[in-house]
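Lab notebook: predicted structure, single chain.

Context: the supervisor wants predicted structures on file for every construct in the current expression panel, including those that have not yet been purified. This is the next one on the list. No modifications to the sequence; it matches the entry in the shared construct table.
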Amino acid sequence: MTGALPLCPHADHQALRHVLACVDASSFANAVLAHAAAVAVAVKSRMTVLRVFEASAEQWPMDPVEWTMRHRDVEADLRERASHFGHLQTDTVVVDGPAAERICAWARDNAVELTVLGRSGENNGSFAGLGGTVRRVAEVVNGSVLIVPPSQVADAPIRYRRVLIPLDGSSRSESALPLGLRIAAAHDAEIVLIHAAPGVDLTEAGPPEAETITLRDRLRRHNERTGEHYLKRVRFWLPAVPATRTRVLPSGDPRHALARAVVEEDADLMVLSCTGQSGHPDMSVGSVADYLINHINIPILLVRRPEGSPTAVYGKSGEAMTARLPSRALL
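Prediction complete. Output recorded below exactly as produced.
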């Protein structure tokens, strides 16, 4: 599987021309750079390496000479890190101030389409949860976000072997397809289109009756069959990619099911939409994406599509095709 894939009619809205890799002084900064470079090479974009220099309360006010010297040290460190990616067009930037605000502002002012951050920063150590800066950036920054878990990387460039793309039947979830397919193609990676059939909740007042159990089982089987049909339709209308599989996870909690699937599939990267079918206007990162960020130990790329750019998968003659699940058979 080599070369560029034909993408969806609105794939131009997701072209990545500028990737921003945000690093700090933690030991995991090299992992952020390596994954940012892996994506930037795949989509043929330029990369900027950014470091926000924050002074602690104990360091303030800082002597101007010391401040200048520290800035020079940070800039020299960034240039040295960037030199390992000579095959990329790479710039380095050092800014001062509150990290989340400066990252978001710089990304906005410099037309960044993808911001890459480590899940835990230098103040979080190896803590498994999402750092405050990363959470704020993921919720506010323009464009898509790649969040990298704490890890050590080798000197060799990163190659993704298996890319998971969760789909819940909504056009929002399908907005992750163009970018996920493009990255997978560049890395000759296997693509797994995956759907987690939703659980079935029935109101009960006491032990379930036989009729209730039968009804629940019928609904679960219905959701799983519908999911299988949906993925087959999506797979049929996508460009011909030999190394593509589909998988429907049994009815249950989609968050837990997807987290288990990452381990079972031995995946290297997950690409999914920031929000799924529910798409609550007050949530820029949906509940499923939020859970996965905190519970899986592979990079997760949250695709945020521009408003007003609907996504439809590609038909053989180039026409848009709609492949929707029933509204209740979704994540």
